[in-house]
Write a structure and sequence with these properties.
By secondary structure, the protein is an all-alpha fold. It has two domains: 51 residues; 35 residues. α1 crosses α3. The protein starts with 9 loop residues before the first helix and ends in a 5-residue tail after the last helix. The mean pLDDT is 86.
Length: 94
Amino acid sequence: MQATRKKHSATLKAKVAFAAIREEESIAQLSRRYGVHANQIYKWKKQLLDGAIRTFEGDAPSSELGTEKEELLQKIGELTVERDFLSRGLGRVR
């Protein structure tokens, strides 16, 4: 007999993860209260913390963004030239 997996809402996941971060109750108590395995609570807690870290990592210096933008524009130019060259070889003109 195959057991069906429970699908938890994002709201429940966030609620449980925040409760785990606050550490007002143990993971075992949270597990019993919400009917979720302790390992799952640890996983949601880690995902929440990793997501919070990624939120603040987005503050890249403008010089890095400028360099990346220049590289992308250069690549677009190279691909455009290549496309035009190949289309002329097939007899099409752009």
